[in-house]
Q: What sequence folds into this?
């Protein structure tokens, strides 16, 4: 048996804010079994988020929440599907290492997990984002376990890699 987890992050624009990218999303879901480390890749799609926020003299301040689905492929070739719900908040442009922080809860019939990330925009147009983060198993075979993820997002789709640790 093996671990199965998914993670995703997407970016969103607040309407009426001159198309300025002000919030992002990431997603996590999981399928799990077993008690050993398992590497995976994933692809996710999210729904259009609900966003709140404003532009300040220091930059945009915003938050968002949304849902979505993820397909995960594990090192042994097996695949899993999951659903997620997420929240995110932008960080004022001061001395912080990440432009956006987020957290997602993922669920499948096999268990639940949480993903938390720090993300940065990768282009001047703010249409792509890269993230790093951690995994926390909450129920089922992943309960009490941790892991790591990397995420690349463009629009409402994301891809990435991760691993659950023993």
A:
């Amino acid at each position: 048996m093996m671990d199965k987890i998914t993670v995703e992050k997407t970016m969103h624009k607040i309407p009426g804010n001159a198309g300025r990218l002000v919030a992002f999303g990431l997603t996590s879901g999981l399928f799990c079994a077993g008690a050993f480390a398992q590497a995976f890749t994933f692809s996710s799609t999210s729904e259009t988020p609900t966003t709140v926020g404003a532009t300040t003299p220091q930059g945009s301040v915003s938050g968002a929440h949304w849902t979505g689905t993820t397909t995960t492929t594990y090192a042994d070739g097996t695949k899993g599907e999951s659903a997620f719900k997420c929240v995110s908040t932008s960080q004022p442009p001061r001395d912080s290492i990440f432009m956006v922080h987020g957290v997602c809860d993922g669920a499948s019939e096999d268990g639940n997990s949480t993903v938390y990330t720090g993300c940065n925009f990768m282009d001047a147009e703010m249409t792509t984002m890269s993230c790093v983060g951690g995994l926390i198993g909450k129920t089922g075979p992943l309960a009490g376990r941790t892991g790591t993820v990397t995420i690349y997002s463009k629009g409402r789709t994301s891809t990435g890699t991760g691993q659950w640790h023993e």
Observations:
- The chain has no helices and eleven strands.
- The chain has a mean pLDDT of 78.
